[in-house]
Amino acid sequence: MHNPNGKKFRPNREADEDNNLLEGRNAVTELLRSGQDCDKVFVAQGARMGDIIALAKSRGVPVVECDRRKLDGMSTTGNHQGVIAQAAAHAYASLDDLFQNAADKGEAPMFVICDGIADPHNLGAIIRSAETAGAHGVIIPKRRAAGLTAVAARASAGALAYMPVHKTVNLAGLIDELKERGVWVFGAEADGTVGLYEADFAGPTAIVIGSEGEGISRLVRQKCDFIVSIPMRGKVNSLNASNAAAVLLFEAVRRRTYGK
């Protein structure tokens, strides 16, 4: 492939896989002006993008300054003009939408909170587990975490079409709001103070799954009502984030269906 200037380039495979990238000043500006969900804007270091950066920040969209070579690797057109935006592959829901989803089913709310899940494959797998377990919504932070990219959508194996996902600027503040609305918040950690089979998931519940490397962040952990540990019987003492989410979700399903 060639760009308009006649120079050869090889599109990054990851960029090909994540096909919701918009390139160039006009395309990114119009995306931000349209009000469509946008996960992130990448800007080349030293590029004069003050207007785009200001517009992105006014929309609450994270801006990442990076080496131009990174943009070259992401680009599928070879003509990114120093800016690439990552648009959401699926619209985000409001927090009220998540509660309404539970109310429409006549069930106590059950949500999954993803605290810093950076891998879109893991996020998609968590959404898939949440949907199959009958959860009413997934909550993700706006910064330092994967969004609803095309990769996450594919990893969800179709579950994203049925599972509302809410994106928040302030995860700790959102947990406070959940608690004000009667939801009990359970964080999943290896050093939990409550065992998985003793945790009471029968009422309105939010399960917090931490990042792949660092687990639940300090402030979010402090906001949790309970820290729940999954019993480990083997030599390895940890689970992938999406696997941990599935274990907790289906224990909640068992508890809600059969009681203790």
UniProtKB/TrEMBL annotation:
The RNA 2-O ribose methyltransferase substrate binding domain, residue ranges: 21-93
SUPFAM superfamilies to which the protein is assigned, alphabetical: alpha/beta knot, L30e-like
Record's keyword terms, sorted: Methyltransferase, Transferase
Biased composition (Basic residues): 1-10
GO MF: RNA binding; RNA methyltransferase activity
Entry's Gene Ontology BP terms: methylation; RNA processing
NCBIfam families, alphabetized: rRNA_methyl_3 (TIGR00186)
The protein's name in its UniProt record: RNA methyltransferase, TrmH family, group 3
Origin species: Butyricicoccus pullicaecorum 1.2
